[in-house]
Recover the amino acids of this structure.
């Protein structure tokens, strides 16, 4: 799959081939620019020397993993907190999905079930789960019955609400403009 969330070819290539990298990028996508968040999995994999695995991340010494994320340039504005969240996510994936994130969506009966599975992930609330569900549907071809409805507004065709709608630099600009307009309207009320 061709993903362009990091806006860096090598980082986007990793996101396209690694469901774990995509889940981690989405987890990191808070309080930092989207491109920085989705470059995070690539940065981690470069520092490890290979692609990410849930088993390795889950079993890594927490202090060592925090140091890996904090190394300059830091993977996130809050490397200690996010290192813990990434490890919790990895441990959950090992325990519930044999370390294979694609199992989350591989046999989901419908969009509602997939949304529930995503919301059960550590660090994923309803909004993040809906955005990730929309990303799966719009860009990864994961479209169980009712996926658009389960994704809520993020599942709407032609919307410019979230990372699910970013496919190039132009769509990134449209998503940013829509978010700024939404903030402006909210402030005015």
């Amino acid at each position: 799959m061709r993903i362009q969330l990091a806006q860096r070819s090598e980082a986007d290539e990793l996101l396209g081939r690694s469901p774990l990298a995509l889940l981690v990028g989405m987890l990191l996508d808070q309080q930092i620019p989207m491109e920085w968040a989705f470059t995070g999995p690539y940065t981690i994999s470069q520092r490890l020397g290979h692609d990410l695995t849930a088993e390795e991340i889950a079993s890594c010494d927490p202090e060592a993993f925090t140091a890996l994320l904090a190394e300059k340039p830091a993977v996130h504005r809050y490397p200690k907190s996010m290192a813990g969240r990434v490890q919790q996510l990895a441990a959950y994936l090992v325990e519930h999905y044999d370390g294979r994130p694609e199992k989350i969506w591989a046999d989901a009966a419908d969009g509602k079930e997939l949304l529930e599975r995503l919301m059960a992930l550590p660090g994923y609330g309803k909004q993040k789960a809906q955005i990730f569900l929309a990303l799966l549907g719009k860009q990864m071809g994961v479209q169980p019955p009712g996926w658009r409805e389960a994704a809520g507004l993020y599942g709407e065709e032609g919307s410019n609400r979230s990372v699910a709608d970013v496919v190039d630099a132009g769509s990134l600009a449209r998503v940013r403009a829509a978010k700024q307009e939404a903030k402006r309207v909210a402030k005015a009320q």
